[in-house]
Amino acid sequence: MSHGLVAENRRARFDYEIGDTLEAGIELTGTEVKSLRMGKAQIAESYASPEKGELWLINSHVQEYLQGNRFNHQEKRPRKLLVSKKQLARLDQEVARAGNTIVPLKLYFNDQGRAKLLIGIGKGKKNFDKRATSRDRDWNRDKARIMKEGGRG
User: Fold this and answer.
1) Domain assignment present for 60
2) How confident is the model at residue 82 (pLDDT cuts 50, 70, 90)?
3) Is residue 33 part of a domain?
4) Cα(83)–Cα(89) distance, rounded to whole angstroms?
5) Is 119 part of any domain?
6) Residue 107: CATH number of its domain
7) Number of domains within the chain
8) Where is this region: Disordered (predicted)?
9) Are the beta carbons of 41 and 63 closer than 8 angstroms?
10) Region of residue 150 (left: phi > 0; alpha: psi -120 to 50; beta: else)
């Protein structure tokens, strides 16, 4: 897997109402890149946090590279996200609002082979919103099945 999708946070759109999205670079060590190229990453329980004038990805899991030696990386270390100062100021302002958080959506390699993280500004959904999302998804699935069968219900 030299390019393409590495990890996706499928639960994010269910738990959060995603408003704005932004592509951010991610600062990695050599063994982390090799592990990502093998598709060994999880971002399901992670979040991004602006701290000390920088943006950090917290609680993401990149599995150790098996052929790595004593210079292997820590699996759950905070990783620096690369965004401009203007973007960081806007994200910091959005997080300062009540209920907003920065949620990672996808981790992938772009066309140049660089690791990128798609982040979104999310507002947490209430339980009734989650039920409505689930109901709509079920109805769309049933509707597609009915249309595929030719309306013979």
Assistant:
1) yes
2) very high
3) yes
4) 10
5) yes
6) 2.40.280.10
7) 1
8) 126-153
9) yes
10) left
Q: Are 103 and 119 in contact (CB under 8 A)?
A: yes
DSSP β-ladder status, 61-62 and 54-58: unpaired
Dihedral, CA of residue 91, residue 95, residue 97 and residue 103, to nearest 10: 110
Contacts of 40 (CB under 8 A, 6+ apart): 62, 63
**Per-residue pLDDT tens for 52-64?**
889 999 998 888 8
- Measure the CA–CA gap between 114 and 152, rounded to whole angstroms: 49
Which residue range(s) make up the domain with 50? 4-125
Do the beta carbons of residue 81 and residue 56 sit within 8 Å? Answer: yes
Buried b / exposed e across 111-147, counting CB within 10 Å, b at 16+?
Answer: eeeebbbbbbbbbebeeeeeeeeeeeeeeeeeeeeee
CA distance 138 to 15: 16
pLDDT, tens only, 95-108: 887 778 889 999 99
Residue 1 binned pLDDT confidence (cut-offs 50, 70, 90): very low
Q: How far apart are CA 10 and CA 129, in angstroms?
A: 17
